[in-house]
Request: fold
Amino acid sequence: MTKNNINKSKFSGRIKKSDGHSNTFEFHHGCSCGSDGCEVGGGEKGFGRRIFYISSSVLFFVFAILFKSQNSVLSVGLFVASYLISGFGYLVGAVKGIIKGVLIDETTLMAIASLGAFALGEWAEGSAVMILFGIGQQLEAYAVSRSNRSISRLLNLQPNTAHLIVDCDITTVDASEVSVGERVLVRPHERIPFDGIVVEGHGTVDNKMLTGESLPVDFVVGDKLLSGGVNGNTAIVIQVSEDYSNSTASKIIAYAEKAAIRKSKRERFISRFAKIYTPIVVILAVVVATVVPTLIGVFTGNYFYSDWVHLSLVFLIVSCPCSLVISLPLTFFSGIGASSKNGVLVKGADSLEKLAAVDYIVFDKTGTLTKGNFEILDIVPNAGIERDSLLRLAAIAEKNSNHPIAKSIFNYFVEKGLEIPDSTSVSEQAGNGVIAHYMGSEIIVGKKSFLETRGVEMPEFTTNHSGSTVYVSKDKEYLGYIIIGDSLRPESKTTIETLKNSGYSIMMLTGDSEIPAKEKSSMLKIDNFLHSLLPNQKLQAVEGLIERGHKVAFVGDGVNDAPVITASDVGISMGAFGNDAAVESSDVVLISNRNDSLLDAIDISKRTMSIVRQNLLLALTAKLAIMLFGFFVFIPLWLALIADVGVMMMSVVNALRAMKTPNL
Reply:
């Protein structure tokens, strides 16, 4: 975090939970004063006090104007009182900043300008400057509080307590004290505190805050529920499968907190720019106030210091970089909040910025474009081998694998009501298959080429089925193969078509053989696809695109995808935290587990970056125009501040447009 006070991308959590997460989450305006008159996150009580200060200051200002012609001494006293009521906190903040080593920030600029006006005898203008500055801060506070709501909602996903069932008693305990395997009661309309399996009851759950899905989801005994969802109208009992800190809601909260402090390149530039820009502005103002009139006086004999000092104060006010250092991080923050409403977790402003620049999108096939719910389509044993024996050996080897194909084999066997014994050892070769040892025998399950490299003699044949083919051997003897199929996600065609129509280049990568890969690519109208790839070959394919100058986003379901997700310009993972390694390495998480959420994320990222560019242009153009105008026309200080605050508020209001969710 930059030490400069004018860095507006400052975030903090409040009211820590037992697991370290906070219940409130605020984007702070970053002023140095530390007073109630300036802090954004002060709550309703603090807001009322700040309004009281401003109102009182305005009242004193009005009386000062009324008494100006009758009693100048009283009028000056009222102007000073008005100034101190509205500006004392800012003056203290400026002094604190100087003590901390922050010599010049926006508070200091306003203090110099207002005190300079007093030095020129312009009491009304000096007082007006501070009143208007305070009003501007409160308008900014309102805009920031609106932005806070869009992402702070994520921090209320997980309740602090749970109704623990011990024997026949129900005890309300701290949720962090509940262990995996214990049972908890979730009453109607309560938020689910843990990931768990339903063991009693049935009904619906509202996952809108998790996935963006507006319709409730039905569930019955045996279904898995995610923490953060809101239970429907019936009481249920769940058996905890993940402890409090490792649950889906807890991970979303952790990533949301991290997202708030990850800056974009533009934000980092503005922070560095402000550190240099503000002191330069003060130096130029000093030059305008002293050097310019001195040089003019040398040649003309007329020294108009007061006019040039006034112009320098206008210069100080207008050149304040508030509109830039507030609106840019606020725009990104609003964009992140809009994404969360649509079931997309963007892990920071830098991720949003990079997503908007992508021109090539690479999809993993299985679990991303397809459902990833594989089914056994056929079992083809070798001569003399029984179907059930072939399937049983495959299930023993694949029992502990998380790969969707392995799970389909395991689940098929379990659904028949048969138990699967454990192997003594298992070695999984990513992208190839598994080697297991059971009762002294070596079982190999995987690709044909994998079995061949392990010394298994494979017969010469080809399969014309569009599904994936898994081959099985025992002690180097080929036993047969199993054909497993997968179907497309219902939204995949629309997603690919929309992306292609938007000008994106699309590629599909898969470890499947040519026939199923070609079938799925044809159905999706993806011309560029690669098949039979190992994880390292997927990585090479993405790195090759990056080397050719493309900005690449990779979308995967997390199974063996972590390396390529990390290597891509923007790594995107599917699902509600099904694979920790992939989620940790990704920049964007599609919590909704729908690939068309990517369309929302891209739309939001592009609109966010468009607003960032608009605000940069607006702020720089308006400030330059006003400063140049000041050289030719007398501009009162209060009018200069109104212009500056106006530019800032236009930038802030424009920034809040990034909160609008897309209509696709």
Observations:
- The chain has three domains: 10-153+257-335+607-659, 161-246, 375-485.
- Confidence is low (pLDDT under 50) at residues 1-45.
